[in-house]
Amino acid sequence: MNDRQHPPANGSAGGLLAAGGLFLDVVFAGLPGVPRLGEEQWTSDFGWGPGGIANFAIAASRLGCPTAIAAAVGHDPLSDLARSVLAVEHIDTTALRPVPGWQLPVTAGLGWERDRALVTGGVPAPVPLPDVLAGVDFPAVATVHVEPGLGQWISRAAAAGTKVFADLGWDATGAWDTAVLDDLAGCHAFLPNDLEAMAYTRTETARDAVHALADRVPLSVVTLGGRGVLAVDSSTGEEVVAPPVVVPVRDTTGAGDVFGAALATATLTGWSLRERVDLAALVAAICVSRPGGAAGAPRADELVPWLDAHPDADGGRFGFLRDALAGDPSRLPLPGAGAPTGSPADVRPGSTSDRPLTTPTPR
Predict the structure, then answer these.
(1) Taking the domain 16-321, which CATH number applies?
(2) HSE value, Cβ hemisphere, 13 Å, CA-based, for 87
(3) Per residue in 210-249, pLDDT tens?
(4) 351: which DSSP letter?
(5) What is the signed CA dihedral for 22, 23, 24, 27, rounded to 10 degrees?
(6) What span, in angstroms and rounded, lies between the C-alpha atoms of 320 and 303?
(7) What is the rounded distance in angstroms from the CA atom of residue 293 to the CA atom of residue 86?
(8) Domain residue spans in the chain?
(9) What are the angstrom distances between the C-alpha of 156 and each of 163, 217, 276, 352?
(10) Biggest alpha carbon distance in the chain?
(11) Which residues form the Carbohydrate kinase PfkB domain (predicted)?
(12) Residue 35: how many CB atoms within 10 A of its CB?
């Protein structure tokens, strides 16, 4: 197999495909403040692991969803490390595209005062995502980093029945060109935060923004950080205003990605929009209460025990989840979810959280 061809990734055919930019994340949370020049700070809240689009893949796989990842990787040791960690997480890695001479970028996340700053070293992948996706099977659900040229793949995926969940990301230029929203054509859902949503739609409130975006995609979801979630399903008329799951925040790195992965996975369950949003809010809340970004995303079998340990977070809101996990707590009730698709390896993401990260039990 040469560098321009790879076999289809079949692990996501009935589950989720995460496609986009891959990074190696090194996360430092719980800092007392902004590091000053000439100063060294120590923190015990530290974690590392694959980031970027891998946040979606890891979170979905831990909920029991058959998951594959499509992204460019290098021939460098960091790429090998990321691939090994993804395999431990039971993620199909056959659609990772090796790029000669390119090194996987590294992102350092620095967290303090309930938020974080990011610094990335490296250069973007020299291979466009449509080339990475060539020959990859269409899944039931896809989470993608939307970029120019991806529209044809999105249209073909939608025609094949795939529900595409789109992520546009932060516009570092500050232009917030509304033409970018045209790239959402064919997508099932768009999941920006409130600042992104208001900037792209030129609206003054998150509520106005979520309704404006509902004119472009069937499912418009705007996350509000510690204030909850707004969601509108324009195909059914459902509208959800979900309160936050209140937790002590330790690290917000990757929280939006973990929320998106959980929501996309829950789409396969047949639950109501309210239940899907509540599940995603719970998963993201547990994640931000731990250091390490997506490395802190919970497994399905952790959800009910976490609710039992935090009764104030439940309030009867998650009875549907308790019922769904009563038979098999290791996975959400997903149709056709079978054995893991990845090959376990003796490498796993690291974290100094009070919850040790361990290799997932076979599903």
Answers:
(1) 3.40.1190.20
(2) 13
(3) 999 999 999 999 999 889 999 999 999 999 999 999 998 8
(4) B
(5) -120
(6) 12
(7) 15
(8) 16-321
(9) 11, 16, 26, 43
(10) 56
(11) 45-298
(12) 14
